[in-house]
Amino acid sequence: MPDDEDALVATIDQAAMLDQVERWAAVNSGTRHLAGVGRMAALLADAFAVLPGEIMLVEPEPAEAVAADGSVADIAHGRHLHLRVRPDAPVQMLFTGHMDTVYPADHPFQTLTRRADGTINGPGTADMKGGLAVMLAALRAVEAAGAAQLGYEVVINSDEETGSLSSAALLARAARGKVAALTYEPALPDGTLAGARGGTGNFSIVVRGRSAHAGRNPEDGRNAIVAAAALAVRLAEARAPGLAVNPARIDGGSPNNVVPDLAVLRVNFRPAAAAEIARARAAIDAAVAEVAATHDVAIAVHGGFNRPPKPLDTGAEALFGLVAAVGADLGIPIAWRATGGVCDGNNIAAAGVPVVDTMGVRGGAIHSPDEFMIVDSLAERAALSALTIHRILRKGHA
After folding, report:
1. CATH class of 200-307
2. Model confidence over 27-46: pLDDT tens digits?
3. Is residue 127 annotated as part of the catalytic site, yes or no?
């Protein structure tokens, strides 16, 4: 590598990064644990204040959820961190991550364990407090090397693990005009990155029937549980190679001697391509109309497709190629493969911005008490990001 790139990488301090990860992972920041998320936001604001620009803690956009009783209510979320640096610079990039984890305040997985194999087991170490440390270290290295022509935005949201419902608009605004984006979800333990991604849509479908005595006059009732079950079966029949459908849960019901008048069906759809979203919507509409007529019930559909599919278009392929070339110069093999998982990279790609969304640490067993981060991947991945940013700045594009 050129001397300036060697010097850039030499500024990365893995010990300092590890200290950050351990302090951050000690804070429970499950999405719904607002006090913990608030504490995490304050820690991140302090840490990212070493970068130039203006840091803001942005109020969440309104988001709703359907309760088990069929009522619709607002969901409270924490504030999102937003940093803007040199908005008038000629080369503009976006860097994103999330401060929330999947572990609620009362989850038993709360502590860190250093293992003899060079990993740390702990909540959020890989997903993605390690990734946030990588992002910050890379940006600090780039700033230290001189980045007057680079402008960027950093968005670290508080609700990624539950679909970014209150931060999607902020992400869309931040993506405008960017030549490329890097997101810091974890890579696989062997370093493999996520390439193309499918999309996702979550729906809560409220079925309202009519109660009646189960023995005396059941024919006067309209069984919402039976109708919801029929709807689940009907939607499951919409499965296809490009569309996974998972009827996941039915809330509601009544005592055994009462015909139940309420049920809430929860369904997840995973479209592999944009065209499958239209097909899924048509399937929902047809199934709802058929079941409502057949069972004489009222049905209301709540939810939508919050993560569009993320194909590998020419811009994304060019960015992956650049990351792979940087990896080769660092002695890091870079490969990628398609995945059915989703993240904020889906939303960024939908805004027309090339994105690599697994630039975080190497780790695994995420969303489980076995979650781990490979310690040596901190400096490795920070170097990969820093040089990728440096070369995009030098070229003016991905």
Report:
1. alpha beta
2. 999 999 999 999 999 999 99
3. no
